[in-house]
Design a protein that fits this description.
Layout (H helix, E strand, L loop, with lengths): L10 H4 L15 H5 L6 H8 L16 H11 L19 H14 L4 H9 L5 H17 L4 H12 L7 H13 L6 H9 L5 H4 L2 H7 L18 H6 L1 H7 L14 H20 L1
């Protein structure tokens, strides 16, 4: 075990347990159970972003320490963690991050919106990292409905740059707005889709979007020959999706089975390969 200089109060957190064996929807109340107060926020931020835990034995409990730390920061509504946790978006292959940071940021609250908005808009950030910021904004809109319009406006304004964005980023933006049932963004979505600047392999076409937004009851034109999987279907058929994507149902202890994110990544990767062949 690597020696790390953390306060003794965090020792129980570092060795708290295997997240895969816990209820992922109902996190332990770490502050109450372990007596962790806001004075430990700086150390919790350091722990949540400590890359040395990636080197821990995969069977050890300490490999889960960053996950427990970012959950605790969410429960403490730690606004100080807003900027530092952004660096975790770079770990796009870590499904625990993809799955849980939107929840963490929604717990921290709407104060995170400006930083997430800036991260999404920054073209120097990697595309999939930007989609993580987008996921967090989507979650904040769902948990804090009084900020729904603010988050939808940010996503819509980013989509309005469809001629400048990656086509995959445009597709994920469309998907986020559809998830939020943002009917008010329909005209922007339509213009982006009609411009052929959206990877429909990920988002679906304009008729798919209209149906998901409740603007249309059924298709009038046969769908193009691409394997689009509506978000609603991904949610409903997780077990089937795992089989279709060739994913084992029993995941590595480092990652949970975030099938929606995995499916969308798989779609984006296929899209990029397809576009490279055209060049």
């Amino acid at each position: 075990m690597q020696e790390r200089d953390y306060p003794s109060t965090l020792d129980k957190l570092i060795n708290y347990g295997n997240c895969r064996e816990m209820d992922g929807k109902n996190w332990p109340n770490y502050p109450e159970e372990l007596g962790i107060t806001s004075e430990f926020i700086p150390e919790l931020i350091r722990l949540a972003t400590d890359e040395t835990f990636d080197e821990a034995d995969s069977d050890s409990l300490e490999i889960w320490a960053p996950v427990h730390a970012w959950r605790t920061l969410g429960q403490l509504h730690a606004e100080e963690a807003i900027e530092p946790l952004l660096k975790l978006f770079e770990y796009r292959d870590n499904d625990w991050m993809v799955d849980e940071l939107p929840i963490v940021y929604s717990m921290i609250g709407p104060k995170a919106i400006p930083a997430l908005s800036d991260y999404l808009a920054n073209v120097e950030n990697e595309m999939f990292a930007r989609t993580s910021a987008m996921d967090c904004l989507e979650k904040i809109a769902q948990v804090h409905p009084e900020h729904y319009s603010e988050c939808v406006n940010i996503l819509t304004q980013q989509l309005e740059k469809f001629n400048e964005n990656d086509i995959e980023l445009n597709a994920f933006l469309v998907s986020a707005l559809v998830n939020l049932k943002a009917v008010e963004s329909a005209s922007t979505i339509e213009r982006a889709l009609m411009s052929e600047c959206v990877e429909e392999f990920i988002s679906g076409d304009w008729e798919d979007v209209q149906i998901e937004l409740g603007l249309k009851s059924e298709r009038e034109v046969p769908r193009k020959t691409f394997n689009f999987i509506p978000t609603s279907e991904i949610d409903k058929q997780k077990k089937g999706m795992a089989s279709m994507l060739g994913m084992p149902l029993e995941k590595s202890p480092r990652r949970p089975a975030n099938l929606k994110a995995k499916a969308k990544r798989k779609q984006a990767q296929k899209s990029r390969k397809k576009n490279r062949k055209k060049k």
